[in-house]
Amino acid sequence: MPPLLPLIACLLGACAVLLSVTASAQERVVHVGAVHFPPYVMKTEDAQPRALLPQLVDALNRVQTDFRFVTVPTSLARRFRDFETGRIDLALFENPAWGWQSMDYRDIDMGLEDAEVFVARQEATRTQTYFADLAGKRLALYNGYHYGFANFNADPSYLARHFNVVLTYSHDSNLLMLLHGRADIALVTRSYIDDFLARYPEYEAQLLISERIDQRYQHHALLRPEAPISAERFAELMEQLRVGGQLQAIFGRQHISVRPAVSP
Questions:
Q1: What letter would DSSP give residue 225?
Q2: What is the DSSP string of 32-62?
Q3: Where are the alpha helices (DSSP H) in the chain?
Q4: Residue span of the signal peptide, if any (predicted)?
Q5: Average pLDDT for residues 13-26, to the nearest whole number?
Q6: Percent of the chain clearing pLDDT 90 (strictly above)
Q7: Residue 23 has pLDDT above 50, yes or no
């Protein structure tokens, strides 16, 4: 007969493995699209600690054990196809007007608000009236983004026909073009300009930020109908993070407005 203690240890080990497998089987994976959209999603490794989406995903995973949220890299153009094919279940920080009109999804208001602002180089005689009229001004824009002043039409040919635009894939490059006189106005989110000036405080006195807002971002989560999580459950998790203060901790320091928790 084998010794009792080794047998008990063996049985306990087998039970632990079985429980782990059972838990893994019950845990449902929710694939979250990660589109380069600083400061929400950033490409470079050194910028990851500042990116907001990984922090939100981590908070969602910590607050419950039924689902495991994982980020899936995608792009502005590819995210629609990835959503339709099920490669991603959830698109965050979205607006249904940004090309989603023909898609089937559940819409959840995230209770987060950002804004797109105009930025120009500061000059002695330049005031807020500089942003009143865009005609004739060289605009540095991010390729693929939907801008309010252009009726949310992101087509490069449309923008080129109606405006004097330079399209890039870098907000930093657009702001540096302003500083070097190669563009007149750039458009960035309020959260992004805060991040940029935190990294480069020496540029703060050289930039004029508009009081005029191109668009307000009422951030939405768009959920695939066949996703492992329901819209109601995701909304509950977001409210749990709101009540617990995690949303304010993640987004508040970037001057992103966090809707107050619902009163009991």
A1: T
A2: EEE--BTTTB-SSGGGGGG-HHHHHHHHHHH
A3: 4-26, 52-62, 79-85, 156-162, 171-179, 190-199, 231-244, 246-251
A4: 1-25
A5: 47
A6: 75
A7: no
Alpha-carbon distance of 132 to 116, in angstroms, equals: 15
DSSP state for residue 209 in the 8-state scheme? E
CB-based burial of residue 196 (10 Å sphere; 0-12 exposed, 13-18 middle, 19+ buried)? buried
Closest residue by Cα to residue 250 from 91, 70, 49, 89: 49
Q: What are phi and psi of 35, to 5 degrees?
A: -100, 135
pLDDT digits (tens, 9 = 90+) for 91-139: 999 999 888 989 999 999 999 999 999 999 999 999 999 999 999 999 9
**248-257 LR contacts (CB < 8 Å, sep 24+):** 250/52, 250/55, 250/56, 250/59, 251/52, 251/112, 254/39, 254/52, 254/191, 254/194, 254/195, 255/190, 255/191, 255/194, 256/52, 256/112, 256/113, 256/114, 256/190, 256/191, 257/112, 257/113, 257/114
pLDDT score of 66: 97
**pLDDT, tens digit, 9 for 90 and up, residues 51-90:** 999 999 999 999 999 999 999 999 988 999 999 999 999 9
Domains in the chain with CATH codes: 24-114+218-258 (3.40.190.10), 115-216 (3.40.190.10)
- Residue 141 contacts residue 165 (beta carbons within 8 Å): yes
What b/e readout covers 10-48, taking b as 16+ CB neighbours within 10 angstroms? Answer: eeeeeeeeeeeeeeeeeeeebbbbbbbbbbbbbeeeeee
Please give the Cα distance from 67 to 95 (Å, whole number): 24
- pLDDT at position 104 is 95
Average pLDDT, the chain: 88
Overall average pLDDT of the 240-263 stretch: 89
